[in-house]
Automatic annotation (TrEMBL):
Database matches in InterPro entries: DNA-binding_VF530-like, SAP_dom_sf
Keywords: DNA-binding
Superkingdom, natural source: Bacteria
One function term, GO molecular function aspect: DNA binding
Protein name: VF530 family DNA-binding protein
């Protein structure tokens, strides 16, 4: 049952690090900070600091995942 549920999940197999890296490469940190308004994207941004924040705050992670889906799943 779980395998079937993952089959249609576009985020399956993509790590949070992969998602943050893809978004930062696509938009750049400044645009990412404008779109999502997280300090980890605005003040001294890095993948490492972003991951630390996003792993603590589920609501923020969900916003990043949704932006990834909106950007790359067309």
């Amino acid at each position: 049952m779980a395998i079937t549920a993952q089959k249609n999940n576009p985020l399956h197999g993509k790590t949070l690090e992969y998602i943050v890296t893809a978004l930062s490469n696509h938009y750049g940190w400044a645009e990412l900070g404008y779109l999502l308004r997280f300090n980890c994207f605005v003040k001294d941004p890095s993948v490492k600091s972003s991951l630390k924040f996003l792993r603590k705050e589920e609501w923020a992670r969900k916003q990043v995942e949704q932006l990834y889906l909106d950007t790359f799943s067309k």
